[in-house]
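[Automated response] Your request has been received and processed.

Submitted sequence:
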Amino acid sequence: MNENFKHIVLLSLVLLAILSGCRQNTRSAADLKESREAKALLQGVWTNEDTEDVAFRMRGDSVYYSDSTSMPAYFKVVGDTLYIGSSARYHIEKHTEHLLWFLSSDGELVKLVKDADVADETEFVHNKPQVLTLTDVLKRDTIVRYEDKRYRLYVAVNPTKYKVVRHTVNEDGFDVENVYYDNIIHLSIYQDANCLFSRDFRKAFYQQQVPEAFYQQAVLNNMEFTGCDSRGIHLDVSLCIPGDASCYLIQHVVSYTGQLTTKK
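Generated structure:
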């Protein structure tokens, strides 16, 4: 009898453990599920509580920024976290129908309020983000001499339709994406009427010269003549992240026989 009682107690404990685990798994699954109610509460125009500037509008599954250069992004709320785009996430401190407090990417508390003023809808009349051009069409002729020989350098920086996406943080602490057009740079070098060198340079040519994270957000910016010596004609190419002070300079040397060498 005592032995049977022990078996019953042991079986009961096992069943309780299983049921407890199931309840925990159910709660975990619920925590990972997107909150449609929270998404519904977020619909509308939100402004910064302190500055009263418009931060964004949420409509459907997308968040739209008043900055015409920032791309719209998908958003969702899971548990106490607001997800925007593919990688940005923000811990929600407080969320009601008219209040949204969250921690920005640098840990600062951002307080937003829902704006009932329909006039703010005019902030979002753009349907597509504006694509920016970092450099206007630039053409430069340079005449140089070395050992009594005359050389003409022709450089043309031409904007393209190739898009580069730059990730940045806006004034409200949100990670946003801005889109820029990349450039192609053409270089021709002549000795009198003879063409020594002619080539189009694209950003991909420099991919191995700079860190990958930098490369993905950089634009081919400019090419400038820096001097002549016995090795040849020296030019510096700059790759820059738009709106940032970060640039890499890559040196080209074109020999007097038309051979190109490159180094960072």
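Summary generated for your ticket: The radius of gyration is 29 Å. The mean pLDDT is 82.
If you did not submit this request, please reply to this message.
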